[in-house]
Amino acid sequence: MIKMVIADDEILTLDMLEHIIDWKKLGIRIVGKATNGKEALELIHRENPEILLTDIQMPHIGGIELIKMLAQSHPNLKIIILSAYGEFKYAQEAIRYGAAGYLVKPIDELELEEMINQSIKSNLEWIGKEQEAAYRKLLMTRNGTPALLQTMASKGIRVFHNFRMFIIQADPFSLNDQLLLDDQSSFFSDRVIQVIRQYMSEQSIPGYIYEFQEKEWLCIAEQSEGFGNHIIQLLLMELPFHVVVGVSDLKESLNQLHEAYSEAMDCLSYRFLFSSDNVLEYEELMLSGSGSSYYHEEVYMKVQSLTDEIVSEPLGYTDWRNKLTRILNETTGHPEGIYSLLFGMLVRLRMKKWEKNNGLDHAGIHPVSIEALKKYKTLEDLLDYLEQTIQQMGQEYNVSSQGNELVNKAKDYIQAHYNKQITLEAICSHISISKNYFSSLFKKETGMNVWDYLTIVRIEYAKKLLANTTLKNYEIAEQIGYENPSYFTKMFKKLTGALPQEYRMDPHVERG
């Protein structure tokens, strides 16, 4: 609740001001009433209110003098002046010394409420800035500072106890999501803050949230059991992109804010392992044993053995990816350990390549750094990168004759299944090769991608059916594997330069 003091030398006016508005509904608690300037000053020093509602003419200490004194001792106190018609010049002087506004007696209830709301808004904005600045200072110190906590309390900033730190990071799934987020980052940041603040207010959860850096928000919340899951559910409904939340262990005091931040950030690093999880909690990760950052020697040796196997079969026939995943699943480890393990695997792969070339081609050992690997934020992304590296090595091992053989097998498969819904997975499964490597190999050997080749095969069969049967266009489309006759017509025209019915009437009309 926001604290307010009211001061007027007329008792009836004081009583009227106390009851003219439902102050509780506005979030305001009247912490004292004064009948002169001296009493008002004592009340303010004792209660440290956010708002003062005062008459301009009072005994002992007049309104103007009071405002001057408070400008020094309580610079952020919002002061609203009540004045009679003949005292307008005093009201102007009061505003010059820092009063937030003035009202002319008799008081209009709506005008008073509007001015109070403006003062509340201004006060909250100021507290928010002070609060954010204080948290940033606390995060820079490992054990907090008692003086800073005392300063926060004196400024009306709540000092939280028994809280958790929630770090919320934007986690766009696609390039389009990323571009949208970049284009409207300010709007989405405000929306994240607004949604979470509203939820905390509705659920009476003491806390605070602010944008710590671009696409990252810090939230401190008491009574926070299950709070991370609620954040995810709310933001999934409100935002066109996903977020991930790291949750610290429970902390007793803001002195532990730096520790809470480190724990929540540590949780987010486990996104690398648990890419399907949106909420990563420190307590659960520690209980599951994921906190261990070391691998057993046995695991290291298995990865070394797998590396040798990959080098011996450079085209990727080995099911290395599934084998590596099973090895990593045998033990839980900190992401830093996995990065180190796979970095070692990459280095060994490249050294093995150099050895295979009899140590003659130093340029072939492309540089790699562990920091470069860390740009891949999930294990799947890093394995994709490893797969591309292994495929590139396969291409460099002078296997063009085997490559031709694989492409011919793929062509045979397409010729035999052109009239079905062919998938890249089915083709690669038939010839026992990875999808990424097959796509690059097919393009290299044929000068076209596999889907262009499939289209050519289908249209060639369509031309035979048009020339030798009376089947309708939709029947031909169905027979060559197209569910949509319009799409068949479009592709036929694209490759031949003629519509199917034109080609039926004159096969020599082809211009493609």
Automatic annotation (TrEMBL):
Q: Which residues form the Response regulatory domain?
A: 3-120
Output the InterPro entries linked to this UniProt entry: CdaR_GGDEF, CheY-like_superfamily, Homeodomain-like_sf, HptR, HTH_AraC, Sig_transdc_resp-reg_receiver, Tscrpt_reg_AraC-type_HTH
**Compartments reported by the entry:** Cytoplasm
Q: Which Pfam families match?
A: GGDEF_2 (PF17853), HTH_18 (PF12833), Response_reg (PF00072)
Q: Where are the transmembrane segments?
A: none
Keyword annotations: Cytoplasm, DNA-binding, Phosphoprotein, Transcription, Transcription regulation, Two-component regulatory system
**Annotated PROSITE patterns:** HTH_ARAC_FAMILY_2, RESPONSE_REGULATORY
Sites bearing 4-aspartylphosphate, chain numbering = 55
The primary site where this protein sits is cytoplasm
Domain HTH araC/xylS-type, chain residue ranges per copy:
408-506
Which PANTHER family does the annotation name? Answer: HISTIDINE KINASE-RELATED, TRANSCRIPTIONAL REGULATORY PROTEIN HPTR
The name on file for this protein is: Response regulator
The organism encoding this protein is Paenibacillus germinis
